[in-house]
Design goal:
Blueprint lengths: L4 H31 L4 H7 L11 H7 L2 H33 L6 H13 L4 H10 L7 H4 L6 H12 L3 H9 L4 H9 L4 H16 L3 H6 L8 H11 L10 H46 L1
Helix pairs in contact: 3-14, 4-8, 4-11, 4-13, 9-10, 11-14, 13-14
């Protein structure tokens, strides 16, 4: 198909705009990645000059010399994977149920769900509920409280409505139960929305640290984000705490290296995972938006 002059101009403008956006997004990531391998003093004076004499792995060595980093990494994987599995199961089942025709009180249930998107019980009541359920200082305090996400349910319901109802009607005529219809017909067609919800849930839990800070007391259970937060706070220079200027400068140098290295470590799993989810992510979001 031959494009007109206006189409070619529009495509050129789109390419330029997308290139600018990519540069804006990639530049900070590239800067942080390269800065994690450079001496902070050289970085401050020379900028990102990739001179071999300025390269260093000291930031990574200092982080991994503490066993809490590896333990926190493993904990984050367990929390994120468990949270993702529970969230996907709950939200997919709820979304499918709310997408079925003839469900009594469907609108009332949706109104009830939507209200919870704007109002919640607050931090102290939630903490008391978690405590009364005996989930404090356990993995369940991280996974259960936020597993039900109304936005994911709405997204799943919208996707299930896009599946032709004739498929389900044909299965019912053949004697299939509602569970068999979901398991053998709807579920295989739902990979895009499942991967979208899984990606959102995993990223959200991987980057979270506040719930762990509130509900976990045992440092052995700390996720990676909370461990890195503790490391950064411990290595942060506070004015007046250290009288020797040389000692303060050295501590500041170490702190800068740890900051950049910790950002790379925390971001690496998400960067590796996203390309495998990309095709499902794009399809799932587009189906929901078109509906």
């Amino acid at each position: 198909m031959n494009n007109s002059k206006n189409d070619k101009l529009l495509l050129l403008i789109n390419k330029v705009l997308l290139s600018v956006i990519v540069i804006i997004v990639v530049s900070p990531l590239l800067y942080v990645f390269l800065a994690s391998f450079l001496e902070p003093n050289s970085l401050l004076k020379k900028g990102l000059l990739l001179s071999p004499s300025d390269w260093t792995f000291e930031g990574y060595k200092r982080i991994f010399s503490d066993g809490t980093i590896v333990r926190g990494f493993i904990n984050s994987i367990l929390y994120s994977a468990g949270f993702t599995i529970v969230t996907v199961i709950v939200c997919i089942l709820a979304g499918y149920t709310l997408s079925t025709e003839g469900l009594v009180g469907k609108k009332t249930i949706m109104v009830f769900f939507i209200i919870t998107m704007f109002f919640n019980g607050g931090l102290i009541p939630t903490y008391l509920v978690v405590k009364d359920l005996g989930m404090l200082n356990t993995i369940w305090a991280i996974i259960i409280p936020n597993a039900i996400n109304v936005w994911f349910i709405i997204l799943a319901r919208t996707y299930f409505k896009s599946i032709p109802k004739e498929l389900k009607e044909a299965a019912r005529i053949d004697g299939a139960s509602e569970f068999q219809i979901f398991l053998k017909i709807v579920f295989p067609l739902s990979k895009p929305i499942i991967f979208v919800i899984a990606l959102y849930a995993f990223i959200g839990q991987w980057n979270a640290y506040f719930d762990a800070m509130i509900y976990l007391e045992d440092r052995e259970l700390y996720p990676l984000q909370l461990v890195l937060r503790s490391i950064l706070i411990q290595n942060e220079v506070q004015p007046g705490m250290i009288g020797d200027q040389l000692a303060r400068a050295e501590l500041q140098r170490i702190s800068e290296m740890i900051k950049y290295s910790s950002i790379v470590i925390a971001s690496l799993p998400l960067i590796i995972m996203y390309p495998f989810f990309q095709k499902y992510f794009e399809k799932g979001v587009m189906v929901g938006s078109l509906k």
